[in-house]
Amino acid sequence: MSKLPDKIKKQLKKEGAKRDVSIARESSKKIAGLMDDAEVFVARRPPRKPVCLRLDPFDLSMLKRIANRKGIPFTQLMSMWLHEEIEREKSQGRI
Asked: Of 14, 22, 37, 88, which residue has the fewest beta carbons closer than 10 angstroms?
């Protein structure tokens, strides 16, 4: 799953193809130097938005137990599960 817009993905593919062609002509020492000087690409995500949600106390307790066993905060677990379900719905063509 990619979070980049199609326009940026196409641009990055073009840049990558050009770089592959130019690097193929270079010596291994030159390539090592280029790799050392290369910047790491970081895709910026929009900030997350807080949401208020009312849950059954038993469900919340179980959620916290599961998250504790996994070693992650329960809010992160909720976010992961929600994201997984959204992706499942998308892959099945329901969205």
From this structure: 37
Element housing 42 (H / E) = none
How many CB atoms within 10 Å of residue 80?
Answer: 13
Lookup result for tokens 């504790």? 68
Interior CA angle at 39 toward 38 and 45, to 5°?
150
Helix (H) or strand (E) holding 94: none
Q: Where are the alpha helices (DSSP H) in 1-95?
A: 6-24, 28-37, 57-70, 74-91
Residue ranges of the chain that CATH labels 1.10.1220: 47-95
- pTM listed for this prediction: 0.52
pLDDT of residue 42: 83
pLDDT of residue 50: 92
Assigned CATH for 47-95: 1.10.1220
Section 48-56 average pLDDT: 93
